[in-house]
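P.,

For your records, the input lines for the assembly:
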Amino acid sequence: LNKTEIERLYEALKKRAEGAARDLKGQETGDKLRNLYVGCRGFLQTLEIRELTSLIPRKSYFVFADGDRTSRPVNASLYSDSLSSETVQAVLNCAVSAMAPSTITAAIYTIAMSYCCANDILKRGDQKTPGTFFELLIGHLVSSALGVNPTTQITAPTLDLNITLPTDFVFDLGADKSRVHLPIKTSTRERVVQVWAHQRVLDGMHGVARFKGVLVVMAETNKQEKAETVTEVCLPNQWTAYQMYIAQMFRVYYLDLPEPYSRLKDRYPFIQVKQFGDFFFEIDKIERSGLVG
Amino acid sequence: LNKTEIERLYEALKKRAEGAARDLKGQETGDKLRNLYVGCRGFLQTLEIRELTSLIPRKSYFVFADGDRTSRPVNASLYSDSLSSETVQAVLNCAVSAMAPSTITAAIYTIAMSYCCANDILKRGDQKTPGTFFELLIGHLVSSALGVNPTTQITAPTLDLNITLPTDFVFDLGADKSRVHLPIKTSTRERVVQVWAHQRVLDGMHGVARFKGVLVVMAETNKQEKAETVTEVCLPNQWTAYQMYIAQMFRVYYLDLPEPYSRLKDRYPFIQVKQFGDFFFEIDKIERSGLVG
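Structure tokens returned:
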């Protein structure tokens, strides 16, 4: 597939998820995601693969390359160039109860990376489209699993005026359940404090833990172009301060989980950072109304 | 002056303020700022001036232009191409008690815009250097006025570990006075929530209002390249939510004050947004220890 065809498949997805239909959770959105994945995989199979020198313990990475154009780093043990169509179908329909969390995580990583890497090669310097695509992919999976489409703004009546704010995806699961606040990022870096700040606004407007905060992130890798090395940028002490002093995120899920963050669940304030495949097996905890716990 | 000479003057400033001397408040840093301003003014006088169509009520703007390269929008009633050397000297030494706040604001705006516009023309796409320059300029003025140099990290002992965080400039004025938290931005847009979030972390770590938050911003203008128009991007309801639910900023100062924000001081939660020249006449309020008010 060429650039124009991949763009056409992306636009079809975007139109389905964000257009008049606005049905992020629907089967049809899943089909559009699958079509785009299949197209991107075909394109990536025509490219060269170059190993990177990984400076991250116990992880190895490569890039897709077309001459001097290279993709973002790809985790070699998560990415598969031979995902079966049954696996793709099952994951995009959230029919994952028989799969291991690590298998689910790797399949979703592969689907997410395929579009992002194809776009890296086809459209140099475009950060926005991969970010939007990743929001649609994760938004589709979470809304399918919860059975509810999200909204992206929130209104609070105050004594003086009604304040309406744009938000990341938020889900209303009904009066007797939690609401869900779902920020989705391809990476976090220094802007991650926004996630805790928005959770704080929701807690202040609507009561602590009325919304459970679930952050989903792709990876924290950083490629050093000249040296052909890859590192991870992690700030675990800053996350600790945010969780102590700003607000409490209920879960953080990664597709490519950095070890420095995974260790945060074992020390105060016990931020629960896990692989995204675990999400599908703890939906009841997320839905359950009440304070963090 | 050409590009190399302006770069040399900028590096001399940066070395003085951030190098071994680390004396942001000192007279010598003021001299380097003046040299850089004089150099940039000379360069700008060789350029064409093009009026923009202003979509902002009661404000008119122009750009400096060199062929198809244009600068950011400049507020015509604040910028002066004939600042006297006495005014420049007085402002950079904080000897401003005899000047009107609006005169001080316009002089600092002129100094700030001169470097930013020269850099816009000389280095297309460089956002970082103007941001750093603006931090050094405002940091110099505030630290001179307070008589103390800032630091850029903060340590909090917790029950489990010492957490050290990088911060915007923070000032320790002594045990019986407030500390000051001074974020400085050329514009804010959607990233401004970081300012309130960092204030919240400081309040949580050290007690509410132990640090008084003072945000300084250049402008909120946005240029539409093709249409040659200029607008202001303001989100006053979001600021209201942040001030109500995240933390309380003590002051917000602008060089080019947007009217939608200046109105925030007249309605709950009464965010005090003012022109930067007012800062020099309310230092005692900022220094005074105690809760917001």
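Two observations worth noting. Chain A has a mean pLDDT of 94. The interface with chain B takes residues 156, 158-161, 163-165, 191, 193-194, 196-198, 200-201, 203-205, 237-238, 240-242, 244-246, 267-268 of chain A (CB under 8 Å).

Regards
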